[in-house]
TrEMBL record:
Residue stretches making up the Fe2OG dioxygenase domain: 104-205
Protein name per UniProt: 2OG-Fe(II) oxygenase
A Pfam family assignment: 2OG-FeII_Oxy_3
InterPro entries according to UniProt: Oxoglu/Fe-dep_dioxygenase_dom (IPR005123), P4HA-like (IPR045054), Pro_4_hyd_alph (IPR006620), Pro_4_hyd_alph_FE2OG_OXY (IPR044862)
Superkingdom of source: Bacteria
Organism: Paenibacillus anseongense
Keywords, sorted A to Z: Dioxygenase, Iron, Metal-binding, Oxidoreductase, Vitamin C
């Protein structure tokens, strides 16, 4: 019988308790570890994140090269680290949830997809061998309900997550068995009706922030 690899996430059971929130675990896959979580953000936090980001959106770019591509057709922005009290509160909750110090976190990203916009299948970690401080886990938080389309799709697993306001999908890719990492290939499927807002948190293997 194969041994299950050690994961970053250390919660057992059907809920995660942070200092300010009780987060139900709706569904779970063990390898690679993928969790669907409810109640990660309140409705008012979702609305506030959209309002704060709305006038700061720019066309999203790809990876370390920072180029515009039809591979990714959404718009995005990044909050400053602990930019205000609400962002700091959400960052602290995310750090507890993802079981990684906030010093390892990239800035919180907001993404907006209009009808027809999508992100083709990709890895969140960098595939170059000379990356010193790679990403190790992702939390995608849904800020609104999407009328049709916009699922987060894992093609290798034939598995999709439907956007639901306040909910999130967590996945990690820090395994010794690289085949498990490759199973986290995922896409943002095209929005068919309405639009889609998400907040994304990436964590790094080593300290990323100065704090």
């Amino acid at each position: 019988m194969a041994m299950i690899e050690q994961t970053i996430f250390n919660s057992i059971g059907n809920k995660i308790i942070t200092k300010d929130r009780e987060i139900p675990v709706v569904a779970r896959m063990d390898e690679p570890l993928i969790l669907i979580l409810d109640n990660v953000l309140s409705y008012s936090e979702c609305d506030s994140l959209i309002d704060l980001a709305n006038n700061r959106m720019q066309r999203a770019k790809i990876g370390n090269s920072h180029v515009v591509s039809n591979f990714r057709t959404s718009s995005n922005m990044f909050f400053e680290e602990s930019e205000n009290e609400m962002i700091q509160k959400i960052e602290t909750r995310i750090s507890e949830l993802m079981n990684i110090p906030i010093s390892h976190a990239e800035p919180l990203q907001i993404l907006h997809y209009k009808v027809g916009e999508q992100y083709h299948p990709h890895f969140d970690y960098f595939t170059s061998e000379n990356v010193v401080n790679n990403r190790i886990s992702t939390l995608v938080m849904y800020l609104n309900d999407v009328e049709k389309g916009g699922e987060t799709h894992f093609p290798s697993l034939r598995f999709s997550v439907t956007p639901k306001k306040g909910s999130a999908v967590y996945f990690e890719y820090f395994y010794n068995d690289n085949c498990l990492n490759e199973l986290t290939l995922h896409a943002g499927k095209p929005v068919e009706v309405g639009d889609k807002w998400v907040a994304t948190q990436w964590m790094r293997r080593q300290r990323y922030r100065n704090v």
